[in-house]
Specification:
The protein contains 17 helices and six strands. It is mostly helical. It folds into three domains: 106 residues, EF-hand (Recoverin, domain 1, Orthogonal Bundle); 88 residues, Orthogonal Bundle (Recoverin, domain 1); 116 residues, EF-hand (Recoverin, domain 1), CATH 1.10.238.10. The strands form three sheets. It has a two-stranded antiparallel sheet. The longest helix is centred in the C-terminal third of the chain and has 19 residues. It is globular. The N and C termini lie far apart (66 Å).
Length: 317
């Protein structure tokens, strides 16, 4: 695996160097190739799109097995999609550590902690709900004593493993920024809440309405089969663009809940979604959607809330 990765990165950099002209950087050449195959313009590619982008640069990945191996190396949060901005940052930050001329994208940013925190928010938001959940998972892995907090070295290791493109110095500045009481540790639940920000009241209300509709017996848990039978992904952007099927989206949706469940480590069985997990999931998704109106309509469509209201009105006539 290491040999495949090393030879792939060496050949990729050579091809990019050949294609670079004038003031254009190697990173911009690569991003342009990936963007060409990013049909819904969300900053990510799937394995087949990754292969096409690499082929456009001039490299033919010989086998499907090699493609899957390479893709899984760079898909650090195991979401099935690859953020190509982060891929570029990781690739070129490695070259800079070995004397290369170009730093990672994040290293060009100001060392001001507030600006770094804002950049971190943007990077996580670009990955949607899985971005923050994936980082939370890295934090949990680093938290050997299950203290729900990380010291500076653990924090920097988690940030590095998640490949967000920050330098060690910037990670240290971020840690100091979030270590509000200067106690030498960062509570990662509080950190993630600060990065995510709260949902607005309209968003909280529609999420509560969706859970209430599903939780028919009011016990605070939803059976996975109940979710599977109701969830509607027809208006999901990736389904509309033809990038994914409704079943693909459903599988992602359920897998994200399972990831959140393992992070939370609560007493609920694996086959159910708790109200806390349901709300937390949409808290994560919320950070990547700017408009309340779009978020509210997405929830109503996904869970058929408008249809339910229409049925109730019809039954009273």
């Amino acid at each position: 695996m290491d040999h495949l990765k090393t030879s792939f990165e060496r050949e990729l950099k050579n091809k990019l160097s050949e294609k670079t002209k004038g003031a254009q950087s190697e990173e911009s050449v690569m991003r342009k190739a990936f963007k060409y195959f990013d049909l819904n313009d969300n900053g990510t590619v799937e394995p087949d799109e990754f292969a096409k982008a690499i082929e456009k640069i001039g490299i033919q990945i010989p086998t499907k097995a090699d493609l899957n191996t390479l893709f899984n190396i760079y898909d650090l949060d195991k979401s099935g999609t690859l953020d190509y901005e982060e891929f570029a940052s990781v690739l070129f930050s490695k070259s800079s550590m070995h004397g290369g001329a170009r730093p990672a994208t994040a290293s060009k940013a100001s060392s001001d902690p507030e600006q770094l925190a804002e950049l971190l928010k943007q990077k996580l938001a670009s990955r949607g709900g899985r971005g923050i959940i994936g980082l939370a998972r890295q934090f949990k892995i680093m938290d050997d004593d299950n203290s729900k907090s990380l010291c500076k070295s653990e924090f920097k290791k988690a940030m590095g493993d998640f490949a967000l493109g920050f330098t060690p110095e910037q990670c240290s500045a971020l840690f100091d920024y979030f270590d509000v009481d200067k106690g030498g540790s960062v509570d990662y639940d509080e950190f993630l809440r600060a990065i995510r920000g709260p949902m607005s009241q309209p968003r909280k209300s529609v999420v509560a309405d969706a859970f209430k509709k599903l939780d028919k017996d009011g016990n605070g848990w939803i059976d996975i089969n109940d979710v599977r039978g109701v969830y509607n992904a027809k208006k999901h952007p990736d389904v509309v663009s033809g990038k994914k099927t409704e079943d693909d989206i459903l599988k992602e949706f359920l897998a994200t809940f399972e990831m959140a469940h393992s992070i939370r480590n609560n007493d609920a069985p694996n086959y159910v979604v708790t109200k806390e997990e349901f709300t937390e999931y949409y808290n994560m998704v919320s950070c990547s959607i700017d408009e309340d109106r779009y978020f509210v309509q997405m929830i109503k469509t996904a869970w058929g809330i408008d249809e339910e209201a229409k049925k109730q009105m019809a039954s009273t006539k």
